[in-house]
Amino acid sequence: MQPYSHSRLGTGRSTAATTTASTSSPPSSPRLRHCRSKFSQGTGGSDTRVGAAKQSLLEKVVVVLITSVFKRRGLLLFAPLLYISGMVLYMGSLSLDVDLNSVGGVVVRKRTPPGSVYRSPQVFEKLWPYMEAENNGSRNALMTAWNPKPIQCWKPCSRSITNEGLPNSTGFLIIEANGGLNQQRLSICDAVAVAWLLNATLVIPIFHLNSVWQDSSKFGDIFDEDFFIQALHNNVNVVRELPGEILEQFDNNISSIINLRVKGWSSPTYYLEKVLPKMIKMRAVRIAPFSNRLAHDVPSYVQQLRCLANFGALRFADPIRTLAEKMIERMINNGSQSGGKYVSVHLRFEMDMVAFSCCEYDGGDEEKQEMDVARERGWRGKFRRRGRVIRPGVNRMDGKCPLTPLEVGMMLRGMGFDNTTSVYIAAGKIYNAEKYMAPLRQMFPRLETKDTLATPEELAVFKGHSSRLAALDYTVCLHSEVFVTTQGGNFPHFLMGHRRHLYGGHAKTIMPDKRKLALLFDSPNIRWENFKQQMQDMLHHSDSKGFQLKKPSASLYTFPAPDCMCRQIEGGNEDNNNSTQLN
């Protein structure tokens, strides 16, 4: 047990590791080798030998020319051409089919690399009859998605609270939480840890009006302010606003308080050596923005303040919790055929996400124009800078394209979730929703969103406040039997950690291999049995990755064990050696 001490100096250090990888030159195309062989065999007999002799002579000439170029130091003249040619071949954007039987001689056609084109509608058309045949099946994957681990599990650690009282405050810490809901959550939790480290009094964080989220909500509109203050009162002193006498010192203008430009991922030592002296001198300091300003790898006793803040002190405001509880109850009723269980999906297919990904779907010129407008509106020339090359096909092969609702539906059906499954979609405004949501509803008739699950009257108070709406989605997803993440970001990372904390250390989250999906969805002739096997393997892989301990460079908000949780061994005994308790 870590005693509560006035000394906050930790011994942990942040480390960063970098890796380098080298890639060898790709082999020559088998298709081109086949074409050369076919060409030489077409004349037969002695012509073949003559052709081979000519080819051998040509190769010798090429070798001599290249050698002379190197000897005469002419390589620099050809370097740009060689580099561009090598990159084009490496990226797979010049794959050739050669037709020797065409009228007029040889015709070269461009062939797209596997996984680079959006062909999911064609795959769906092929597989839909097989999905229909398995509708209303008796073996819904919702009942058997996760393999229980009876030998050990993790549970939130109990914490003893000291009655010694807090040390004298060194000053007031003011932070500005920017971004969306979960980026704000990260800033708040890190601020609690830093305030404890500095013996500072934390002022309720200020929410910055983000140009993307456009939400004017204050802390108390999203989180329960009274509960937050009470939950932390034995560890960190929290006040709603700066006292008048301190504010007068800065001409009653909080912007006049010195803003410390703290570098990202700073260590506890940095705060003690650089921030604390200024706080003691000025009596108040401001850090804006504060997102990602505390390192992941810090001593366990600092981590536990993050745990306390995220899992113990931060709960949503009453209006959010009240409606969210109603929505959860309705989802449970919808899933009565599956024992009240349901699937939640974080679907990132809003227009801004599709535009930012620079991926192409099946909307043609109209889609391209809409995406160009959206990119210019949101990022003002970022994608038109000189030297910026957009490669939609490469993005898709790399797994960087947002999954469409159709692709999510096919993936879940392949994993064994049948049409009786109750599905909740957590999302903003889906791009071209009428078109893209239709096949998902076809596969899952019991599909709900916050707009269908709650009445317009219930949602009225939340409209125009994206963070409050995201809080509703977060709560419904938190209590689902299966959570599906499709694009990364703070929302799924926080949810996975919160679910691990809630479900014995297991995230109960499907994390699809999007590179593999790109290849499968680009295979219109794929067989249903093969597709199902691939999807079920992906589900089992997500199950095996459900239990994971935090690595030094990883985020505690995604991997709460062992800092926020204790291992429970068989027989119900608790292994307290895995976590230092917070006094």
From TrEMBL:
**Which residues are listed as membrane-spanning?**
75-92
Pfam families linked: O-FucT
Name the InterPro entries for this protein: FucosylTrfase_pln (IPR024709), GDP-Fuc_O-FucTrfase (IPR019378)
UniProt keywords, alphabetically: Carbohydrate metabolism, Fucose metabolism, Glycosyltransferase, Membrane, Transferase, Transmembrane, Transmembrane helix
Please list the residue ranges that the record marks as compositionally biased, kind Low complexity.
Answer: 14-26
- UniProt GO MF annotations: glycosyltransferase activity
Q: Which GO terms describe its biological process?
A: fucose metabolic process
Tagged with keyword Transmembrane = yes
Annotated spans, Disordered: 1-49
> Where on the tree of life does the source sit, at the highest rank?
Eukaryota
What PANTHER family would the database entry show? O-FUCOSYLTRANSFERASE 9, O-FUCOSYLTRANSFERASE FAMILY PROTEIN
Family statement: Belongs to the glycosyltransferase GT106 family.
Q: What is this protein called?
A: O-fucosyltransferase family protein
UniProt organism field: Tripterygium wilfordii (Thunder God vine)
